[in-house]
Every structure is written in structure tokens, then in C-alpha cells.
Amino acid sequence: MAAFSVLEATVGWIASLGYRCSTRVPADAPDVFVTVDRVGDSAADHIGRASVAVRVWARTDAEAEAEANALRLAMLHGQPPEGVHSARDEGGRLLYYDEATRRATDQFVLSVAYQLEI
User: Fold this and answer.
1) How many domains does the chain have?
2) Average of per-residue pLDDT values in the chain
3) Among 87, 68, 69, which Cα is nearest to 78's?
4) How far is CA 92 from CA 53, 85, 100, in A?
5) For a 10 Å CB count at each end of the chain, is N or C smaller?
């Protein structure tokens, strides 16, 4: 068995939904892209439970909000990737403007249950 990366799985999952996604802001960022951060984690009996912040970046507040809503619905109602058991919304939406990148961002947090090894 090999250790499982919930970040890698989440990035791949979001990419499979048609978004450019990584754990860092890309240097050649498109108009809309997504970053993922693990902001909490616990484990028991070979199952991890991660709090994953998903941040959608866009040119305007309205575009960031609309894309975040679409992505959140797709993740909550779609089939998760291998090794991920489930994802549920933790709430706490955050919409703000990032001065460094000159982009609007809309963030949501998911609780992701996953295999520690696969």
C-alpha cells in the first residue's frame, strides 16, 4: 500500500471537472483558476478527514462567485475520485479581492473523507 495524498486527489478531481487547478497560484494564470489548501486534518482507522479550502479565482466578484457555486455543486453531487469516500460542505464562504494578483476570489471549505493508504 502507498500513502494517499488528499491534495493531489482533490486537484485532479477539480481538473477533471474542467478547471485549471493547483496548490499554488500559477505564474501564467488563466482568467479563471482554482487553488486547493488543506486547512485541517484528522484520522482514525485508516480514514482521514481533511478540511480542504477550495478557492476560485476570477476577474470579477460575480464571476468568482458563479464559478465557485458551479464547482461546489459539481463536487458535492458528483462521483469523487478513487480513494475519496465523500465530500461535504463545511460552510464559511469567503469572497474577497486579492490585491497582489488583482483577482476576485471565492472560497468554500469541504470536509473530505479519504483513505490514508491506497
Assistant:
1) 1
2) 93
3) 87
4) 10, 22, 23
5) N
